[in-house]
Design a protein that fits this description.
Helix content: 25-40%
Shape: globular
Number of helices: 5
Radius of gyration: 15 Å
Mean pLDDT: 93
Strand order of the largest sheet: 3-2-1-4
Structural class: alpha/beta
Low-confidence stretches: none
Length: 156
């Protein structure tokens, strides 16, 4: 069974979807996932609490079971994103090298764009090779806020 709830965060509403085992997705804004029951489960509550702590600057690592749906390549990219330390960034090229596809910058970008669990799987930490901020599902303003939050806390 799938469950969902809208979490009213300081960066706007986030729709969290999970099943009985893991977080399946986080969507920016309010949405009603298909074939899911609107219910704040224990796991959704844990996800909300950890997101709240992250956005308050008191959590640098998430401790939640994740089950993102995607291709094998996408999952390799998302696993690589989980290795980017809090407060740091990597380029699309860096991630392509990490997943043994050094010429796959565009494919990494597409996988990043399809990340179903943003913030927790930190696709916001991926930037252009020249340091430019390139796209973000929640909008570039939210990407900037997340990167600034992490940089400020990493300096303490």
């Amino acid at each position: 069974m799938k469950y969902w709830e809208v979490y009213e965060s300081k960066i706007g509403p986030l729709t969290i979807t999970c099943d009985d085992e893991a977080v399946l997705s986080i969507d920016f804004g309010r949405s009603e996932p298909e074939n899911a029951i609107k219910e704040r489960t224990e796991l959704i509550g844990r996800a909300e609490d950890q997101l709240e702590e992250y956005l308050a600057g008191t959590r640098t690592v998430f401790d939640l079971p994740l089950k993102p749906a995607g291709t094998e390549f996408q999952k390799r990219v998302w696993n690589a994103l989980l290795l980017i330390p809090y407060g740091e960034t990597k380029s699309y090229k860096d991630i392509a090298v990490m997943v043994d596809n050094p010429k796959g910058c565009r494919a990494v970008g597409m996988a990043n764009n399809r990340n179903p669990i943003p913030i927790i799987i930190p696709c916001h930490r991926v930037i252009g090779a020249n340091g430019s901020l390139i796209g973000y599902g929640g909008g570039l303003d939210i990407k900037v806020k997340l990167l600034e939050l992490e940089r400020a806390e990493a300096l303490l």
